[in-house]
Amino acid sequence: MSKTKKTTKAASNLDRRDFCQKMLAASVLTAGGIGLPFGTAQAQSRTIGNATITSFSDGTMSIPVNMLFDADANPEIKPLLDQSGMASGTANRPLNITLVDQGDRRILFDAGSGPNFLPGLGELPSELDAAGIELDSITDVVFTHAHPDHIWGVIDDFDEIAMTEARFYMPRQEWDYWDSDDALADMPAGREAFAVGAKTRFDALRDQIELIDYNQEIIPGIEVVDSRGHTPGHAAFTIHTGATPVMVVGDALTHESISFQHPDVINNSDMDGDMAIASRLRLLDRLVADQMMLIGYHLPAPGFGRVERQGQRYRYIQG
Questions:
Q1: What is the pLDDT of residues 176-210, one digit of tens each?
Q2: pLDDT by residue (tens digit) across 247-301?
Q3: Which tens digits make up the pLDDT trace of 111-126?
Q4: Which of 66, 127, 153, 204 is the most buried (most CB within 10 A)?
Q5: Which residues of 199-213 are buried (b: 16+ CB within 10 A; e: fewer)?
Q6: In Å, what is the CA distance from 142 to each residue of 223, 234, 246, 299?
Q7: What is the spatial distance between Cα 53 and Cα 303, in angstroms, rounded to a whole number?
Q8: Count of domains for the chain
Q9: Contacting residues for 128 by C-beta, under 8 A, at least 6 apart
Q10: Cα 293 from Cα 304, distance rounded (Å)
Q11: For position 26, what pLDDT does the model report?
């Protein structure tokens, strides 16, 4: 694939600002015309073998439900949307970011949104600070994919790498897509900043990124799992540090009911719906068969849970 021309910082900031203004206008909950704030969840940890796995909040994303699901085309999901607090037409989704502390390594899965994506996001640095964890103590940052709420936080307000001592990892297919002309051309109207913002972060990371492949062990105990569909190179990651494996599923499973009870319903945020459905079913089968714990980026905070088979469907059990 051909490479995009280098985007100037001025153009990047303009597109990013325009996108954020559009998203804010679309997603604000109204109470006399005033946007309602959303709090963040306290960090929670699990000890699995030789590692402490902690879920930190990057904030709460407030977006229109129709950006996620089409209830008119799939009437069976409307009660599930209502039960999860989306009857108003607004989806308030947490951003749960996983940190694995192995003693000699601190591995962060995704970097959050940073200060310039949407209101209510970009809380990760302050959450880590509150836990006594400095950004320069992060040794590894592993990306599930390159959407804004997962990668924009890798740079700070000065467009410098925020995790100064870290090594960075991204699925090869994901990097190749967002680093090509195809990404900007493929973006629907209003989401052009997704591609522009990814390219800005790629330019900052270009000399420090390690491109990784599915089924590879990138760090001892960290396995790359193919979960393409949400984006062209989306990856989940299985953490093998104890008797119970843990899968960081990224955006392959995003709704606590629909992703499990109706995994064949297309999520409007998936770039390839059919591929995403196939990946979702494959992950669900593995989560059940291997009795894994999972951590979902947008599942109810803090995102820890497990999966049970329920006939031909599945059930998410939080905790």
A1: 999 999 999 999 998 999 999 999 999 999 999 99
A2: 999 999 999 999 999 999 999 999 999 999 999 999 999 999 999 999 999 999 9
A3: 999 988 999 999 999 9
A4: 153
A5: bbbbbbbeeebeebe
A6: 11, 12, 15, 19
A7: 12
A8: 1
A9: 56, 99, 134, 135
A10: 7
A11: 37
CA distance from start to end of the chain: 43
Using CB atoms within 10 Å of the CB of residue 80, give its burial: 0 to 12 exposed, 13 to 18 middle, 19+ buried: buried
Q: Could you count the other beta carbons within 10 Å of the beta carbon of residue 273? A: 16
Structure tokens belonging to residue 97: 């970011």
Q: Does residue 4 belong to any structural domain of this protein? A: no
102, two tokens: 């192995």
CA distance 303 to 94: 9
Alpha-carbon gap, residue 46 to 25, rounded angstroms: 38
The answer to whether residue 23 sits within a structural domain is yes
What is the CB neighbour count within 10 angstroms for residue 101? 18
34 inside domain: no
The model's confidence at residue 312, banded by pLDDT at 50, 70 and 90, is confident
Mean pLDDT score of the chain: 88
Instruction: Give the structural domain span for 167.
Output: 9-28+40-318
